[in-house]
């Protein structure tokens, strides 16, 4: 789908802050609120705008820290469907938050969330590794989140480095 420049700008605005009002978007793009609403409806219908979500710092919510793991998966692709069939089987599990086809040593990158390392390990050993096409996995547990989708986490304070200039 080819988007006009204004539509691209609108998508970028919503990607940065999905809670911004249609009135504010209209002012930023110098178009009417009605036109903003029409374009948003069109982009939602065409599945360009797929979902609106919040970024949550779960480390600040007592009892809800959880565990996130990135799993590299080596797969034997099937004739006629390539990696799509196994990716579909993997992303249907409730523990799986994302699946990407990758270049490099591994074929798929799978992000999994669980309540504990044991829960994630059980998912890998009992569900993921047992799939016919899966040849091997490498699991990386996320220890600390510094930045996600452009949002910086934690108390980063102000930059205290001394400015050096010629």
Structural description of this entry:
The chain is an alpha+beta fold and 166 residues long. It folds into two domains: 5-45, Arc Repressor Mutant, subunit A, CATH 1.10.10; 58-144, Lrp/AsnC effector binding domain/regulation of amino acid metabolism (RAM) domain (Alpha-Beta Plaits, 2-Layer Sandwich). It is built from five helices and six strands; from the N terminus they run αααβαββαβββ. A four-stranded antiparallel sheet has the order 2-3-1-4. It has a two-stranded antiparallel ribbon with strand order 5-6. Strand 5 (147-148) and strand 6 form a beta hairpin. Helix 2 (22-29) crosses helix 3 (33-45). The model has no long low-confidence stretch (mean pLDDT 90).
Query: How many separate domains?
Result: 2
Helix % is 25-40%
Query: What would you say the CATH architecture of the largest domain is?
Result: 2-Layer Sandwich
Mean pLDDT: 90
Shape: extended
Low-confidence stretches: none
Strand content: 15-25%
Task: State the fourth-level CATH superfamily of the largest domain.
Answer: Lrp/AsnC effector binding domain/regulation of amino acid metabolism (RAM) domain
Q: How many beta strands in the DSSP annotation?
A: 6
CATH topology label of the largest domain: Alpha-Beta Plaits
How can the largest sheet be summarized?
A: 4 strands, antiparallel
**Class derived from helix and strand content:** alpha+beta
The CATH class of the largest domain: Alpha Beta
How far is the first residue's CA from the last residue's CA?
49 Å
Rg, alpha carbons: 21 Å
Which strand order spans the largest sheet, edge to edge or round the barrel? 2-3-1-4
Can you write the helix and strand succession as a string? HHHEHEEHEEE
Count of alpha/pi helices: 5
């Amino acid at each position: 789908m080819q988007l006009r420049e204004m539509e691209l700008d609108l998508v970028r605005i919503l990607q940065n802050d999905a809670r911004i009002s249609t009135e504010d978007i209209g002012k930023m793009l110098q178009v009417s609120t009605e036109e903003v609403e029409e374009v948003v409806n069109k982009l939602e219908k065409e599945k360009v705008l797929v979902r609106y979500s919040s970024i949550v710092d779960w480390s600040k919510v007592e009892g809800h820290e959880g565990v996130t793991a990135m799993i590299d998966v080596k797969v034997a692709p099937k004739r006629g469907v390539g990696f799509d069939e196994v990716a579909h089987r993997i992303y249907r599990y409730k523990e799986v938050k994302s699946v990407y086809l990758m270049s490099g040593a591994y074929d798929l990158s799978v992000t999994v969330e669980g309540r504990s390392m044991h829960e994630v390990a059980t998912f890998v050993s009992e569900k993921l590794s047992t799939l016919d096409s899966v040849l091997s996995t490498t699991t990386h547990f996320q220890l600390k989140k510094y930045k996600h989708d452009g949002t910086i986490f934690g108390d980063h304070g102000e930059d205290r480095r001394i400015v050096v200039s010629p």
